[in-house]
């Protein structure tokens, strides 16, 4: 029941940190409150970076410059309906920012209480948080970063 088996070979990257983070976070905290997928997968992606040499903020900045950065409410509410790599990488970047901005205790509360409680938990409206997040991405990458998105979609982070 508490076993993690990861099969890998010379051409497949083992996502051991990603899968181990699922086991640890869900084992310690239980499943996240619905909608849960964005935060559970986002934390696992955050634990297993960089992705193909790219930090999560750089990947998110790439999408911001391209006009494909997902609104946070869309990411949280429709995670499984979105393109996989885009949703996973952007959820990881948002989790990264939440932890950087508010710390792990607030992140844990968000995990337990859910996205709908964001303002109550953080003391900040989602729209202001999202604007600050976008500003951070532009500050870090004033020009579109060189991310080979097609390669990431085809081959993942490995």
Shape: globular
Low-confidence stretches: none
Terminal CA distance reads 27 Å
Number of helices: 9
- H-E order: HHHHHHHHH
Helix content class: 55-70%
Secondary structure: number of strands? 0
What proportion of the residues form beta strands (DSSP E)?
under 5%
> Mean pLDDT, as a whole number?
93
Please compute the radius of gyration using only Cα atoms: 15 Å
Description:
This protein has helices at residues 16-29, 37-47, 56-66, 72-77, 84-102, 104-113, 118-122, 126-140, 149-155. The chain has 158 residues and is an all-alpha fold. The protein has nine helices and no strands. The radius of gyration is 15 Å and the shape is globular. It starts with 15 loop residues before the first helix and ends with a helix. Helix 5 (84-102) packs across helix 6. 62% of the residues lie in helices and 0% in strands.
Please summarize what this structure is.
The chain is mainly α and 158 residues long. Helices cover 62% and strands 0% of the residues.
């Amino acid at each position: 029941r508490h076993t993690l088996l990861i099969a890998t070979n010379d051409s497949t990257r083992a996502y051991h940190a990603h899968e181990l983070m699922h086991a640890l976070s869900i084992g310690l905290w239980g499943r996240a409150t619905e909608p849960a997928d964005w935060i559970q997968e986002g934390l696992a992606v955050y634990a297993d970076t960089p992705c193909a040499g790219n930090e999560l903020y750089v990947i998110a900045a790439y999408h911001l410059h391209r006009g494909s950065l997902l609104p946070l409410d869309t990411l949280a509410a429709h995670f499984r309906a979105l393109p996989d790599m885009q949703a996973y990488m952007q959820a990881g970047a948002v989790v990264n920012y939440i932890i950087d901005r508010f710390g792990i205790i607030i992140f844990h509360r968000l995990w337990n209480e859910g996205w709908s409680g964001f303002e109550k938990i953080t003391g900040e409206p989602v729209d202001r948080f999202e604007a600050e997040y976008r500003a951070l991405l532009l500050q870090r990458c004033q020009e579109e970063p060189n991310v080979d998105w097609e390669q990431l979609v085809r081959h993942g982070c490995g």
